[in-house]
Amino acid sequence: MGVVPTRRNIKKKSGIRKSQLRVLSLSASATKGWLAVGGLRVRCALGRSGQRAIKREGDGATPIGRFKLLNAYYRADRLSRPRVSLPLVALRRDDGWCDATGDRNYNLHVRHPYAASAERMWRDDGLYDLVVVLDYNLRPRKQGGGSAIFLHCARPDYAPTEGCVAVKRDELLRLLARVARQPVLTTSRT
Fold it and tell me: Domains in the chain, start-ordered, CATH in brackets?
């Protein structure tokens, strides 16, 4: 005998679906695709080299896998505090992310000025007005395995990223407001 649908188990199943974000693309080399959560599907930009199972620092590929959404940063001078189920921090002008292979803080948040190479997270172009840290190459961290892989705001033309997944800011806000606790983003060849 099957499970009788009740308000309790339907709600539970619905919550599970809403914690799963899935990237869909036409091929492994595609630089554009779709990001879906529940019934919502929006366009997204991918890495300039498409998607790869084995990623390297600077290859421009979006890694293939299943990654937790860990926390988010936002520009408080550009938007109100977003409604998200993730830990949320307002960006500061000195925030950075280390991309220097061999550095002890490789693929970690740092403060500028920083002695080694580190991406600036306070950007004029709006790409990091809202940025979500993905659980890629963090535990354990593999030197040269790729750094600063985020879910962030897309350029107006959905130009390829350096390996991140990017959607329009308003759509990113809508997506993040819909996801349940402990969301996961899955990228794969389709």
Answer: 7-187 (2.40.440.10)
